[in-house]
Amino acid sequence: MADVSPLPLQPGPNRARTAPYSPVPAPQRRTYGALDLGTNNCRLLIARPGPSGFVIVDAFSRIVRLGEGLAANGRLSDAAMDRAVSALRVCADKLRRRHVHICRSVATEACRRAANGAEFVARVRRETGIMIDIIPAEEEARLAVMGCHVLLEEGDGPALIFDIGGGSTELVLVDTAGRLPRTIDWYSAPWGVVSLTEVEPGDASTQEGRLDIYRRMRARVSNSFAAFAARLPRGAREHLRLLGTSGTVTTLASVHLGLASYDRSAVDGLIVPAESMRRVSDMLSRKSHAERVELPCIGHERADLVVAGCAILESILDIFPAERLGVADRGIREGILRTLMARDGFE
């Protein structure tokens, strides 16, 4: 079911391509699309401008695991590409049926890293008509910030916004003194939930083995964060503001709330004590795969990847020890929509 929550717009630079799905309608009736093909997920939002933002009229999300096996051989596998193309066919059909005026479609770390990423993008265009931009990490970070920064807690001083993806993690330090956030510093770590899981295998049959895997995951991520961490401001914990956008933070927030099934209205914009997220992470790192499968909001689709997400989150909390963590179920797609609509004069 489509989300019809109004989201405030902010202007930004546009790098969209026009999708050949329909004639150009009157501006107030234009429909916009934003597609984010990540290492783990394929996500689409379709929206129209509203009086105070935009209204989402259709949405699609499917776990495709495009980056599965990439860490081992440096290429997208045939099976992974087939899964992604299948999902993208659904997206193409939605774009046509909703008479989308303009759509921007982006791919991130898996396609950036894969030797055959450009070949895959060409195949997608041939078979679905969708033109995908493989965007650099800096653009990925910018779009994530544009999509979720309105959920930052009010306060003074810099804030850290992060996006834990499938193949990478983006960390963006922002100044929020102006109407729009200004990037002070940013870093893209080459570890997301898929890549980190694949690079740190081990014996998960015992709790001791699982904790050893988790320690190694945290050490690897912490080493990657070290140079960025050295540049971060130091201050009292109560003055630090932290906002996360990813399946990891929304899943852990759902576990924290004890939800029987995922509820975006309960999670998006939630403020969670950082120690609560650490406790959830510690609990999940100790459980077996079978035990994680049985937990609501995790299940089969997330059970094997959520522990890597926990390790990345705890490493972020180590370098930016805020007392609270803001949770955002919005990011790159919303950032794309805001950018496209702002170009057409919608505020």
Could you write a compact summary of the structure shown?
By secondary structure, the chain is of the alpha/beta class.
How would you describe this structure to a colleague?
The protein is an alpha/beta fold and 347 residues long. Helices cover 43% and strands 20% of the residues. It contains 14 helices and 11 strands. The chain has helices spanning 70-73, 78-97, 109-113, 117-128, 137-148, 193-199, 207-231, 247-257, 264-267, 274-286, 289-293, 299-303, 306-319, 332-343, and strands at residues 32-37, 41-50, 53-63, 102-107, 132-134, 159-164, 169-175, 182-189, 241-245, 271-273, 324-328. A hairpin with a 4-residue loop joins strand 6 and strand 7 (169-175). Helix 7 runs parallel beside helix 13 (306-319). The protein starts with 31 loop residues before the first strand and ends with a helix.
